[in-house]
Amino acid sequence: MKTIVSQHKIVASADGSGLISQAGGLLLTQTLRVTGLGNALSAQLERWRPPRAVHDPGKVIADLALTLALGGDCLADIAMLRTQPGLFGPVASDPTVSRLIDRLAADPARALRAIRAARAAARQRAWSLAGQDAPGADGELIPSTSTPPSSSPTPTNNTPRRPGRRPTASTR
Question: DSSP class of residue 73?
Answer without folding.
Answer: -
